[in-house]
Amino acid sequence: MNDNVKAFVTEIKDFKNSNNGSMSGINIAVKDNICTKGIKTTCSSKMLENYIPPYNATVYEKLIAAGANIVGKTNMDEFAMGSSTENSAFFSTRNPWNLDCVPGGSSGGSAAAVAAGLADMALGSDTGGSIRQPAAFCGVVGMKPTYGRVSRYGLIAFASSLDQIGPITKNVSDCAKLLNVISGYDPKDSTSANIPVPDYTKSLKNDIKGLKIGIIKELIGDGISEEVKSSIKDAIKLLESLGATTEEVSLPSFEHAVSAYYLIAPAEASSNLSRYDGVHYGLRIKDTKDLLTMYYETRKAGFGPEVKRRIMIGTYALSAGYYDAYYLKALKVRTLIKNDYDKAFSKCDVLISPTTPTVAFKIGEKTDDPLSMYLSDIATIPVNLAGVPAISIPCGFSNGLPIGLQITGKIFDEETIIRTAYTYEQNTEWHKCKITKL
Amino acid sequence: MQNYETVIGLEIHAQLLAESKMFCSCSTKFGNQPNINICPVCTGQPGVLPVMNKKALDFAIKTGLALHCKIAPHSIFARKHYFYPDLPKNFQISQYELPIAENGYLEIEVNGNIKKVRINRVHLEEDAGKLVHKGSDRIMGADYSLVDLNRTGVPLMEIVTEPDMHSPEEAKVFMAELRKIVRYLDVCDGNMEEGSLRCDANISLRPAGETKLGKKTEVKNMNSFKIVQKALELEVERQTKVLTEGGTIIQETRHYDETSNSTISLRTKEAEMDYRYFPEPDLIPIKTDQKWIDGIKNTLPELPIEKLKRFVSSYQLPVASAEVLTLERDLSDFFEEAVKIHNNPKIMANWVVGNLMGYMNFNNLTIKQLKIGPKHIADLVSLIDKNTITGNSAKDVLAKMLEAGKSAHDIVSESGMTQLNDESSLLPTIQRAISANPKSVEDYKKGKENAIMHLVGQVMRETKGRANPEVVKKMLREEMNK
After folding, report:
1. Within B261-418, where are the H helices?
2. Mean pLDDT of the region A231-248
């Protein structure tokens, strides 16, 4: 089956884990930007095609300690930059619901693996929607936890202030279980939060009576496809019928979120990716005439076009004379977006929107149009900029392709998100829909 | 000819005496073997994150306080980007906006005048690794270069002054004073030759009386106080010549070259890099509270210049001795400890500054490496004061003490060096001296008071210096007046 979907960069057969824990007997796929000692971790980049990390990511150690069975390292957009997994330097992963369509990205391999039943659960990473968008496209559950909830130690950085590891699972219960394992303070990650982690499975309650839901006005209007819109409207009706109250809320700064994101994320990326220079590890183009040429040739050969584009944007945004106009201004937008969320959460418990404006698009459809590709992250990007948690769960189909419902919560309130998602799931059949042919 | 005023500001890098690196737990010890003290974090593996070394932060705050700086309540780290093989991440974690300490000063004494040099900032950063080039001294032209990352990530503190120094000598004195301070504080070993204390200078000239700064150059690679002064003198000379001939100074980085004894242009400003500083997203801001700062304040030792003033005023020491005694904290502690045991600071200072330090310098030892402690030297001075031994024989006693690590009492009783004060046992020697030197006796009797010194000398020689000269003098007079 993997031959059709192409979810894995590295498949692991006969993984042995003698630890007993909550993940015992569970097959888990790990995105290929999470470091696994002794196992290739490529970021789907030529630059790290043969890179074998000398250490483990904290989340990976936690999985092993909990008894998980690791089945492979999943394909992704190179260095997590992309929304379709077409930016993998190796091959494109396909959407199990329709092999002509993209699985989304950048955690496309992880989402496709879970959707196709190649893994019970998967880890992804989410910088601007990279867990939620592929989860929506593949009809599975994907959560980006609060920034700081899960250690980033060992996650190969794309944009440090936005990156967060999270679960991709078949249903909300599994999401809660996996979140329990990977969450918590890590002394190796200064930005991880030193606060207690609740047992998320306790939030698996079919009860949202009195829950106040905000419907994000900016994400149910123009630019959202009719099928997606109507599925979201149905979902709202259902949630109301289950005892929640809803109201429309406006987050006006969302208008600038994509622009701000495409300055902040590339700026940090241009810095984080400086280290790939052919000196210490990874690809090196040999026999160049001098050091500078080695740098140039290595980076020219090692990075794909999207990565190069973002390094250039980011380098420009941080350059003397442009810093204030671009990077600093983007940070101000980020603050405004945070303020918008604060205001919305002063009257709502959770916020609802579609995860993506459309269902999965065709492979090759947007590869020549990076701007339209960027815009497919319009609903997910503000969440990362604010650091809040959000989940995507299946809420319908259009032309046989899944639609995702995004539920966003307050900082460190994954519990209310899980309760809302679980209640919705228990009262719908979408998560039970099976892929009939592959 | 136009008179120019020299303007100098310094940037000092001090390697901190922390046991572990700035952002990982690797040891900072240096061995001969390359790439021993390394880990995924300091080698910049993909996916690693830095974790702040709190000890390094304490050191920077301590230094900031000693330099009368304001400690920032909120301080952040930044990434400074440049590509070089000794910098695995190709950015250095440093501080740019909101450094840990700002706006202080350091007082220095130049030619008897106290002068305040303002401190712009004190900040923390990580050191880079080392390159070893084969086939050339530099990376350009080398057959190949090897990277040693043992030093990568070692905590560094950067201290930046305002352009308040007006001569190479002032810069040298500043460096010497700063070195004393970091050593007093125990935050840096101050070794310039080995590079644990490094200094770059920004230097410019302006017509005397002008307030605007002239075009500056940055001088690097000065690894001793002497070279700081020498290199800056050369640069003053060079700039004066350029300006006098009607030229303009090119803003550039210049390297002091020992072999040619000149400064050499390294790169001009146009070729200088844009470091693209931005706040380090992997580290959270440092919040300092009063309790933390006060805790460090309480551990601050008395600083060299304050100690110098106190040594002069409360021990009545000459400035020269006080300066030497306060050069190192261990030395001044040794001295004060000894004075506490035997209260004769002036004589004690002479012994410490003279004989003791002479021995230390000759044998290249520190005060801590001596076999004797403050009590030993205090007892020695006390024996002199009690006339048990003469000052003369005390020198021999001290030499033996230093070799054997024994007390003055032991040496004196072992070698019979006790001073001879007993008149009845001295009398035969006195009488012998008188009868053997009739000429001196005659001169003395004629009123030549000085003639007695010849006789004293005879007695001292015969007693191998053990006789108390005052007693001898008194007895000689009595005998000759009989």
Report:
1. 290-297, 304-314, 319-325, 329-341, 345-351, 357-363, 374-385, 391-404, 408-415
2. 97
| Ordered domains of chain A (ranges, CATH) | 2-256+331-432 (3.90.1300.10), 257-330 (no CATH)
Q: Which residues of A touch B142 (CB under 8 A)?
A: none
Testing the interface with B: which of A36, A61, A151, A272 to mutate, by most B Cβ within 10 A? A272
Mean pLDDT of chain A: 96
Q: Report the residue of chain A nearest B278, measured CA to CA.
A: A318
Model confidence pLDDT, tens digit, residues A374-386: 888 999 999 999 9
A130 is catalytic: yes
Size of interface A-B (CB pairs under 8 A): 102
Q: Alpha helices, DSSP H only, in A78-225?
A: 108-115, 132-138, 172-182
Q: Is A259 a catalytic residue?
A: no
pLDDT at residue A255, rounded to an integer: 93
> Which is the catalytic residue, given A6, A31, A366, A410?
A31
pTM of the model: 0.89
A164: amino acid identity, one letter: Q
Interface of B with A in 374-403 (CB under 8 A): none
Residues of B in contact with A263 (CB under 8 A): none
Instruction: Report which residue type is found at A435.
Output: I
Gap from A431 CA to chain B (nearest CA, Å): 34
Cis peptide, bond prior to residue A106, ω within 30 of zero? yes
Q: What are phi and psi of A237, to 5 degrees?
A: -60, -45
Q: How many CB atoms lie within 10 A of CB A130?
A: 37
Is A280 within 8 Å of B44 when comparing Cβ atoms?
A: yes
Average the pLDDT over each of A62-66, A180-184, A376-380, B94-98 and give the range with the smallest value: A376-380
SS (H, E, C) B233-294: HHHHHHHHHHHHCCCCCCCEEEEEECCCCEEEEEEEHHHCCCCCCEECCCCCCEECCHHHHH
The span from the CA of B297 to the CA of B293, in Å, is 6
Residues A188, B51: C-beta atoms closer than 8 Å: yes
CA distance linking residue B203 with residue A318, whole number of Å = 29
Residues A330/A260, Cβ–Cβ less than 8 Å: yes
Q: Provide the pLDDT confidence category of residue B271 given band limits of 50, 70 and 90.
A: low
Complex confidence, ipTM: 0.96
Of these residues, A45, A92, A130, A353, which one is catalytic?
A130
| Whether the predicted pLDDT of B312 surpasses 90 | yes
Reading the block at residue A398, the tokens are 């259009």
Ordered structural domains, chain B, with CATH: 4-294 (no CATH), 302-415 (no CATH), 423-480 (1.10.10.410)
How high does pLDDT run on average in chain B? 91
- The burial class, CB within 10 Å (0-12 / 13-18 / 19+), for B341 is middle
